[in-house]
Amino acid sequence: MPGSVFKPGDRVSLRTVEAGDDEFLRRHRNDPTVRRPLGEVEPKTAADVAAYREEVVRGEDGLTLLICAEGDPVGLAFLFREEPRSGVAELGYWLAPEAWGDGYATEAADLLCEHAFDERALHRLSARVYEGNDASANVLEKLGFLEEGRLREANVWGGERRDTLRYGLLAREWRANREGRAD
Predict the structure, then answer these.
(1) What's residue 51's pLDDT?
(2) Which sequence spans correspond to the domains of the chain?
(3) Which CATH class is domain 5-182?
(4) How far apart are CA 95 and CA 66, in angstroms?
């Protein structure tokens, strides 16, 4: 059962990750359609997921939250590599395949941007997407992220070398983009 609501949205909420969410995380982190775009190749055991939850989710260098729709977990959203002194962090997210195409990733990422910029007072967010993961790139671009660079053949996805696209977003750009979407 998902933890308490940390940040509510219109159709999704960001909730704390609890031990009862381990099976959801394990099942989807082992799903090839989820793990390949994340760059993961090794299977995740129950012990791996429990260690991940304790080390990363409960860690102090970012924030990891469960994305829930109608109270059920559908994915994970996270800030990591946070550098409070310079006000930067990296944004990441993934959804279970059955939740693809409903706009949940866009809303969850927007909620996390709001938290990063308005509550954590961060100045800049970055994100990475493997070439060919058009859905994830579209999420970032809807929020105002700009493609800033390309790391050629930096990763393997589906057995093929892929470029990694680097995106960036400044707080002022996110605010202006959000105001434009509200019109």
Answers:
(1) 81
(2) 5-182
(3) alpha beta
(4) 10
